[in-house]
Specification:
globular, alpha/beta, Rossmann fold, 256 residues, 8 strands
Length: 256
């Protein structure tokens, strides 16, 4: 049950037939693990908190840098040099004290990934390297937790939903394969990024997160497993491709 104060706060959600009171109550019971509090995680966090997600775990081992402020919208100039995860928790508590939130300032690896996602209804991964993404994906498959993966660079972004633990559905490793388990990858420091592009990818990821969390409660449509949405800021446009399950995938394939 939602209190009168919560009913008032989320009234614009509740009047939507696709969400309603039952959907909002489901969001209040949901637990989301957000990995990476940078260009994607920062705006995603704002809209997840705004949506009334009841419980969140915020994971990032980085500190705020001056170059982050162009796109990482929850941080301030006087917070440069401080840990992102702890600052993000402070932001959530000041925004909505009823959200159950904790922060983790650790790098996610294949060794510890499983320990962070226990009991989650969804993991939203907005980290900046393939090694972490694959470690998170493998842990989600093993734990039976859906994964929403989002990435952005320059004027392009991508957001995809994966449920490799389900029969016939691909995981993130089905998409990228085994060649990217190393840490090396392009960075926005090298390639650049339009700040608003990160905002588009992050807020769209938050929208898709709500869609997934309400798959059994509302009418926002199917969770779109295996659908990768490609965002192009220069056109602008968005197109969607389908990712096939790889029978040979070592995480979710028949040989796993």
């Amino acid at each position: 049950m939602l209190s009168p104060e919560r009913l008032d706060r989320f009234a614009r959600h509740i009047v939507l037939p696709e969400i309603g009171g039952a959907g909002q109550a489901a969001l209040a019971q949901a637990k989301v693990v957000l990995i990476g509090l940078g260009g994607i995680g920062s705006p995603a966090l704002q809209y997840l908190a705004g949506a009334g997600i009841g419980s969140m775990v915020l994971i990032d081992d980085d500190d705020v840098d001056a170059t982050n402020l162009q796109r990482q919208t929850i941080f301030r100039e006087d917070e440069i040099g401080h840990g992102k995860a702890q600052l993000a928790e402070v932001w959530v508590r000041e925004f909505d004290a009823e959200i159950n939130v904790r922060w983790v300032a650790e790098r996610v690896t294949a060794t510890n990934a499983a320990s962070f996602i226990g009991g989650a209804n969804l993991v939203l991964d907005g980290c900046d390297n393939f090694a972490t993404r694959l470690a998170v994906s493998d842990a989600c498959v093993a734990a039976g937790v859906p994964l929403l993966s989002a990435a952005v660079g320059r004027f392009q972004g991508q957001v995809g939903a994966f449920a490799g633990h389900l029969a016939g559905q691909p995981c993130y490793r089905c998409y990228v394969g085994d060649a990217f388990d190393a840490d090396d990858c392009d960075t926005c420091a090298e390639d650049g990024m339009l700040g608003a592009m990160a905002g588009w990818a992050g807020t769209f990821a938050a929208f898709q997160a709500v869609r997934i969390l309400l798959a059994n409660h509302g009418h926002l449509g199917d969770p779109q497993w295996g659908k990768l949405h490609l965002l192009d800021g220069l056109v602008p446009a968005m197109r969607t491709i389908s990712i096939a399950k790889d029978p040979a995938c070592r995480a979710c394939g028949s040989a796993a």
